[in-house]
Amino acid sequence: CLAGEERRRLLKTPEDRLPPTKGAGRSGGTLSVAAGIFCSRLAGLLRTSALGAYFGVGPHADVFSAALRLPNLLQNLLGEQTLSAAFMPTYSRLLAAGKREEAGRLAGAVFSLLVAVAGGAAALGMLFARPIVGLLAAGFLRDRELIALGEATVDRYQLAVAAVRWIFPMTATLVLSAWALGVRNSHGKFFLSYFSPVFWNAAIVGAVAWAARPGAAGDAASAPGASAIADRMLEAACIGALVGGIVQFLIQLPGLRRDLTGFRLSFSLAAPPVREVLSAFGPTLAGRGVVQLSSYLDQLLASLLAAGAVAALFYAQTLYLLPVSLFGMSVAAAALPRLARSGAAAEPDLAAGTARALETAAFLNLPSFLAYLLLGLPLVEGIFQLFGKGFGAAESRLVYLVLAAYAVGLPASTSSRVLQAGFYARGDTRTPARIAVLRVATSLAIGFPAMLWLDRQRLGDLALLGSPGSSLRLGAVGLGLAATLAAWFELGALRRAARRQLPSLVWPAPAFLRFTLYALAAALPAGGAAWVTAGWGAHPTLRAAVVFALFGAAYLALAAARGEAPAEAWVGRLRRRRP
């Protein structure tokens, strides 16, 4: 419980005294990453809100959610987290040693391999779109039969096949964007790479708005009007995603030209740094593959549930991943290059750095967890009812329940990201991969029976939520609960492994407890504001803004009054920004 300055003095480690890369200071790097991620996630929320207004929680929303998820196996296997674990440590060490030419050649070799692998996988995905959709969204195969029986009006399987053929090339461009992000992070340039997804989100929303404009229905007269227009908007969203992915990659290229000394395309695997990266890729791909397998199994299982489950899962995960990215990935992404440059750092130094990162991440993810759990319904209504009535009260309540189920696992997921960065800094990619396998097994063992049982329950049967007559079912909530239990299991396993590799690591449990108490206290006035504004009949978006602004201000004020170092840092930044 030391005061901020004294704690920083005692925890100062040799890695802090390394020659800093421009823009890569600890707080500056984390802030740049967080700012970029915040902008991109805010754009993502606006994109999801707009699509929710157009598609609601229905078959076309199911298709677009599945279409984004199915080809993303390619992006997630070869993307940011894999490159962070396998490529960035080696590249950063070469830069720290002054070997910029060798670092540039390594970047060129990795880029060439990614172009070949991602391009080939995208081509195969387009060619085999039908069996891929049939395998990973098997529930869509029943739609033709349901249409014949008069129980459905949209064939999600056919729409998903067409959508996936647009999305696969998009994922290849996003893999190359992740490579650019890894290079820029190693040079201490964080903001643009994390901000660039804003262009991707804007392209999707712009394309859908263009397709939905009056007079754009085209041949709607030859088919049921609403369905034909929704089909057109779905196709536009997929084309917009491809265009946005290309822009997201190209926008990063000008800045890379100044950093990549010695860059050239090469498929040679002979250089020792290339072999080092490839040797780390194997376990990392295995770990990421297992995690993605869990994600796709959730997608498959959700497709077997009642219509709307896939979309509800997607909407809830969009909100859930916001604090994971902002307060877990940003801390880990900013810390990893610095830890990697330290090379074989002394164990106490790495343990102290990991403890600092855990506390920094917890300062904002713990209040996020409680805000989602206690105040999540006004937030869901404010975001997804922003653009109109397509997203109704029943849909908002279902998404809130799924979000609440995920939110309980938020502290575990965020802390796990930080611990994984510590393992990667030591060159250990196998331990997180092995634990990921156990996490997936736990999620499946719990999720399958939970979703089947909850899918028998109708939202309209829950009197407390005030959705009488709603036919939406709760199966997606079971998948969220299973993911939460698996996340806590993963954190426990990572902590046990960290105690063996970093015996001097002191878990910042007292700080976690204090942050939780501050958040509970801040939830009281925010909850009162939610109740009062609901009685006034305020617009859901305005209501959510008031509630969460009050919650955030109260939490920050309480933490600053108690002398918490992260709160003092945030208050100091806010004061410096005053004119």
Going by helix content, strand content and strand pairing, the class is mainly alpha
Radius of gyration: 24 Å
β-sheet strand percentage: under 5%
Q: How many DSSP E strands?
A: 0
Please provide the ordered H/E string of secondary-structure elements. HHHHHHHHHHHHHHHHHHHHHHHH
Mean pLDDT: 79
Largest sheet: none
Low-confidence sequence ranges = 1-27, 218-224
Helix content: over 70%
How far the N terminus sits from the C terminus, by CA atoms, comes to: 34 Å
Continuous helix count:
24
List keywords for this structure.
mainly alpha, 579 residues, disordered N terminus, 24 helices, globular
What do these coordinates show?
It is a single chain. The chain is mainly α and 579 residues long. It is built from 24 helices and no strands.
Which SSEs are present, and which pair or pack?
Layout (H helix, E strand, L loop, with lengths): L3 H7 L15 H30 L3 H11 L2 H7 L1 H7 L1 H9 L3 H28 L1 H8 L6 H6 L7 H31 L4 H5 L1 H16 L12 H26 L2 H4 L15 H32 L5 H33 L5 H38 L8 H15 L2 H16 L4 H25 L20 H27 L7 H28 L3 H22 L3 H12 L3
Task: Give a short overview.
The protein is mainly alpha-helical.
